[in-house]
Every structure is written in structure tokens, then in C-alpha cells.
Amino acid sequence: MGTQATDDFNSYPKNSTVEEIERQKAIDAWLPITSSRNAKWWYSAFHNVTAMVGAGVLSLPYAMSELGWGPGVTVLVLSWIITLYTLWQMVEMHEMVPGKRFDRYHELGQYAFGEKLGLYIVVPQQLVVEIGVNIVYMVTGGKSLQKFHDTVCSSCKKIKLTFFIMIFASVHFVLSHLPNFNSISGVSLAAAVMSLSYSTIAWAASAHKGVQEDVHYSYKAKSTAGKVFNFFSALGDVAFAYAGHNVVLEIQATIPSTPEKPSKGPMWRGVVIAYIVVALCYFPVALIGYWIFGNEVKDNILISLENPKWLIAMANMFVVIHVIGSYQIYAMPVFDMIETVMVKKLNFQPTRTLRFIVRNLYVAFTMFLGITFPFFGGLLGFFGGFAFAPTTYFLPCVMWLAIYKPKRFSFSWWSNWICIVFGLLLMILSPIGGLRTIIIEAKTYKFYS
Question: What count of other Cβ atoms lies within 10 Å of the Cβ of residue 22?
């Protein structure tokens, strides 16, 4: 408990009574983010892989087809570098105040921008990202289950996507009751292994198939407007693929820390390993997938690969297992926020019953929205730019400038402003393309089909 005491010594208001501090400590020991601080550095590696390498990787060849070779490779590489840099900033800022830890994204925001403003800036964006990812993963899980079923049993009666989303959700009605981040580390490890597996299947099976006969690398859209909007939408897909920052501080909060051995050391080691895995997943899938199929590639590369059947079925099952873990990683900070409000603001007792009701309602809510709006590609582009770009590409830079105030025109100043400009462009442009995709797809869409 020695480290815990130094961790949390300054975390409570100065004028608190002993009883008040004890009550706060009891609540913190119950909340999912702060209840367990004994994670090892490799937990950070596979939590980060699970959070980063989402189903977004499967849409990268499609994004490449809308960006083209030059811009596509540039955006992918720039995104990898910028997001690694902003991730490093967040790991550094976790404990920049001696004796205090910023265990949640919004706590860092409050320190940078002030109590009220910090909450208003960070919480809505973080919630949009985390709930958005959970809804998209409901759809992805359901679609991959459906694809698995149709591949394994092509002569069977077709089953509606709605039912597959419900089957996928049923797993979360159980898993969501694991109390904290450390308790989902097994699920997360399985998910991380699966993401590497299905990414490898996606690019290796594409390479094995060989370049298609009538392959074209020109833009699919004929009109200039179509090309431009698709380009914007593809930027959102790329932003979505790099969305792990929203849970970074929460993952770091689970690592023990003392003044001699701060948590940033083991956390950074895990992040570097995770980013190497990200590169091994993203670049081969995006480049080989596009090279083989050209502009005919589907918005999920596994759909473009029809044979061999057993391999495609297996890859889809891997996606399902990975998305199960990923859903949990993004849901945990949401559970933490809801439970914090219930217990600290509304004075509910921190009980199992409260947790049971809150988490089941949340899973049901994401399931309902997933069933209602399953247009996968457009939603990615829309959410990707709207919320992923700020929290991943430039919010850490804005906080860094606000807190550390680097010298004007120094390297740190320039690098942060370049990231901010790149992130702002992503945030403004990609929702435009995503919204257009949603509108086009919604015309032919039948609700609850």
C-alpha cells in the first residue's frame, strides 16, 4: 500500500476531513480505473494493441483506394508518427505534478484548461469516441458473425444482421461485469493476438491471391465532387484506425508508481511494443490490399477475399474475438464516468447492484443503436474526424502547449503546431465525407431489416 499512499496523497481537496478522505478512498478503490494498480508493463502493450488495432485496419485498403498511392501512404505514415508523438506526450503528462496522477483524460484536461472548461472540452469528445467505437464494434461483431455463418454454411437459411448483433451483445452482458481494467487483461491479451492474426490473414491471403486481372488504381468516383468527398471520408477512416489515445491515461492508471519508479517507464515500453505491432498490422494490410484489388476493394478487406472458405471463416471469427476485447477496453472508461457520477454526485452507494444495472443498460443502449444504424463505413468516417482527430491528433498538443509553454519557434513549439494543424484539417474535412456516405447509404436502407 506504500505506493498507493504516495500516489493519492495530493488527490483530495486540502480542506477535506479524515472521514471525507476515507470515503473518497473507498470510492476510488471501487471505481474501475483506480481500483487496481498492480499492472505490469506488458499489460500496457496488449491493452494498447487491443485499443488501437481495431476493425478499422480492415477498412484501410478501401481508404487507400479513395486516397490514392501518394496521399494514402503519406497520410498513413504521418498518422503513425504524429499519434506516437501525442501518445508519448500523454504518457509524460500522466505524472507531471509530483505526488499526483492524472488517471483519466478529463482530469488532465481540467489541469490544462481549468476545472469547468477542461470537463466541457474533454468529456463530450471522449464519450463520443468511446460510445461511437462501442456502437461500431457492435455492428462489426454482428457482421463478422454473419459472414462466419454464411461462409461455413452457405446453404443455410439467411439470418438477419439484427440477430447476429444481439448474439454478439449477449457476450457483453456477461463480460461487462468484470470490475476493472486488470480483470479484463486476459480478454485483452486474446484480442491483441487475434488482431495480429486477422491482419496477417488479410494481407497474406491477398498476396497469395495475386494482383487481379483488371485492377485499376484510379479513383472510383467519376465526378470531382465524388472524388473529393470520398477523399475526406477516407481521412476519417484513417483517423478512426488511430483511436487508442482515449484510453491511454486510464491504462497507465493501472500501473504502480513511486517517486523513484514512475509509471511512465513501463507504460512507454508497452506503447513502443504496441506501435511496432500497429505498424506490422496496418502497413501490409493497407498497401498489399490496395495493390491486389485496386479501386474494387470492399470497405472490409475480408469481404473482398472469398476463398479459401475455411481461412476467411477463421479470420472473421478472429475479428469477433478481437472486437469483444476492444469493446471492453473502450467501455471501461465509460463505466468509470457513469459510476463516478452515480456515486460521487448523486450519492448512490457503491454496490454490485448499481454496477449490474448501469452496465447492462449501457450494453443494451449500444446494441440498440448498432441495430438501428449499421452503415459501417460512413459512420467510421463521420465519427473518425469529428471526435477521433481532436482526442488523438491535437488535444494532447494543445494541453502540452498550455502546461509546459515551450519557447516560441522552438522544435517542441513547431512540432506541436504542425500536429494541431494536421489534426484540425482532419477534424473539419472527414465528417463532411462521412456524412455524405451516410446520406447516400441511408436512401436505400430499411430499418431493422
Answer: 11
Q: CB of 121 within 8 A of CB of 428?
A: no
Contacts (Cβ under 8 Å, ≥6 apart) of 123: 106, 109, 337
Contacts of 187 (CB under 8 A, 6+ apart): 175, 178, 324, 325, 328
Amino acid at 84: L
Residue 335, C-alpha cell as written in the block: 463505466
Give residue 175's identity as a one-letter amino acid code: L
* pLDDT of 182 strictly over 60: yes
Measured distance CA(331)–CA(151) in Å, rounded: 30
Cα 60 from chain centroid? Answer: 15
Other residues' Cβ atoms within 10 Å of the Cβ of residue 339: 21
The answer, yes or no, to whether the previous bond of 98 is cis (omega within 30 of 0) is: no
Chain segment 286-337, per-residue pLDDT in tens? 999 899 888 888 777 877 777 678 888 888 899 899 999 989 988 999 999 9
**Cell, residue 27:** 470510492
Contacts of 95 (CB under 8 A, 6+ apart): 101, 102, 257, 262, 263, 264
Task: Evaluate whether 231 touches 67 at the Cβ level (below 8 Å).
Answer: yes
Q: What is the reported pTM? A: 0.85
Which ranges of 153-263 would DSSP assign to H, the alpha helix?
A: 161-175, 185-209, 224-241, 248-252
Cβ-in-10-Å burial (0-12, 13-18, 19+) of 268 comes to middle
d(CA 438, CA 38): 44
Report the distance separating Cα 193 and Cα 191, nearest Å: 5
C-alpha cell at 236: 476519417
pLDDT for 5 equals 39
**Residue 209 pLDDT level (bands cut at 50, 70, 90):** confident
| Residues in contact with 416: Cβ distance below 8 Å, sequence separation at least 6, in sequence order | 397, 398, 400, 401, 406
pLDDT tops 60 at residue 449:
no
| Look-up of cell digits 473502450 | 330
377 has pLDDT over 60: no
pLDDT of residue 376: 54
> Is 70 exceeded by the pLDDT of residue 125?
yes
- What's residue 225's pLDDT? 83
Q: Identify whether the C-beta of residue 6 lies closer than 8 Å to the C-beta of residue 149.
A: no
- Alpha carbon distance 96, 99 (integer Å): 9
